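Recall that a protein's primary structure is simply its ordered list of amino acids. Everything else, from secondary elements to tertiary packing, is in principle encoded there. The following example makes that idea concrete.
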Amino acid sequence: MVKTKNEILDEFQMFAIEQLREAAARHTEWSIEQQTMEMWNQVNQMPQLKKSFKGMVDCPECLSRGLVRVTVQDYLSHTETHEDLKCVCCKGLGKITLERSQQSKAEADMWCHCDKQEAGSFLMDGECNCGVNKHHVHCRNCKKILQIG
């Protein structure tokens, strides 16, 4: 299988970012934010890598950290643990294309953000003309989606 230029560039970016992240992580006393800032400082010092990120914007999901903090609550032992996972939006790069950014915004805009959400009727697969073919529920107040599936 022959790889496209973009696939090769993606692999190069992922490899370089992983190497830089590991180098920054050696400073264990640093916070994730400090490690990420150091990683991007190193990226900016490498012309070839910097050029490959031209036209990209900060990821809105991880705030350009490349990682998303997840909180796991254990209701039996009443404990909380935190873990940093690689961001699925930017695949851990901390940057996304402008096109992907606009797509993310459009996806976010279809969801209800009301303070007082009020569920409407349950719609079966293909029953609604809003563009979502899976069964889902709309908010009665703003008419945006509350739940899919």
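Residues 64 and 94 are 4 Å apart (CA to CA). The chain has three domains: 1-54, 56-96, 110-149.
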